Amino acid sequence: MSLWDLFRRQPKLPADAGVTLDSGERVIAWARTQSRSYVVATDRGLRLPDRDRLDWHQIHKAVWSGRELSVTPAEVVEERDGYDVMADLPPQSVLLVEPREVPQQVRARVTGSVSYSSHHPVDGGGVRVVARKVRGRDGLAWSVRYDPGTQTSTPEVVEATGAFVAEARAATTPRDL
Questions:
Q1: Beta bridge partners of 118
Q2: Quick one: average pLDDT of 62-73?
Q3: Dihedral-angle region of residue 124 (phi above 0 means left; psi in -120 to 50 means alpha; beta otherwise)
Q4: pLDDT of residue 83
Q5: CA neighbours within 13 Å on the CB side: how many for 56?
Q6: Which of 3, 37, 65, 170 is deepest in the core (most CB within 10 A)?
Q7: What is the distance between the alpha carbons of residues 13 and 40, in angstroms, rounded to a whole number?
Q8: What tens digit of pLDDT does each residue of 86-112 get?
Q9: Which candidate, 80, 32, 88, places its Cα nearest to that of 59?
């Protein structure tokens, strides 16, 4: 990587992009889509055509095929004591004509929001415990995602899940606090 690459700036977002940023939000990368709309990565999240911004911690998975960016958002389906139960929403895909730095930024920012992740077997399936950094929030946001087919609300699974989250929190809490 040259010194120029290190300090180069992303070209300014075109005026016809039709993207309204929140106060203080800044563009990191952008790309034009096949439908002549724009995908914009900001310091806060990803703006896809025809939808509100997805904050980085709301994106469960992002896949880049070399032409198409596919993003799987997640939503809270249940709030439990100290953590949320998450489920995937339908993936959203866009064909990028000029991807620029968007795929690399999406990967770096989604991956960078994850501070802890572990998978555990539970009765009838499994559960992934995840801690993510959320902009503007002190500390980590804890969530779980059950494997498909897992009975998520049986007392045994809820109890085991709570224990896994408590164990993960204890393992990630600095000892000098």
A1: 129
A2: 97
A3: left
A4: 98
A5: 23
A6: 37
A7: 8
A8: 999 999 999 999 999 999 999 999 999
A9: 88
